[in-house]
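ARCHIVE CARD
Drawer: 12
Card no.: 0347
Subject: one protein chain, sequence and derived structure
Cross-reference: see card 0346
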Amino acid sequence: MGSPGTGVLRVVRATAVTATVVGFAAAAHTLGGASVPGPTLAAGSALVLLIVSAVSGQRFSGAALLALLAVGQFALHHVFTIGAPAHAMGQGSASPAMLVAHVVATVVSTGVLLRGERALWAMWSWLWRLLPTAVTLWLPVPARPPRRWTRRAPRPRLVLLLTAARRGPPAPARPLSAAS
């Protein structure tokens, strides 16, 4: 796992972006006066997840995220409009309220996702620097190999052969005479 752009974190990022884009698009579409049927919502989610999964291998910049979300809002608006029963009757699929709602949804979702993206990458860089320390703390200390005790030949004991016959304090010193 090298970065949030690979592995499980890439799938989590793609899923979070998809949920945000589709959620805000559906809310904007509903606030604009149209309905979003369940199967159409599922189809739109699958389409967005496929596209976002393909482009989520790198860190998103603000401009790239805004462009991705604007295209997503546009595409989801058309998917929701085609899938809605009101489309058959020609009811306002491009009303000014709908347009404003999708633009607001794009700007708000860009802000939310950009903050999340920055937080994720900042946390990742912090954890990546912390990883070597954590690994050394969590890994068990390797045990030293058990010491092999071998029976050695007994050491010879030193026996003092010369022992003093007399025990006790030393005898008082005799004064030296001048004649000696």
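Annotation on reverse: The mean pLDDT is 78. Residues 96-138 form the longest helix (43 residues).
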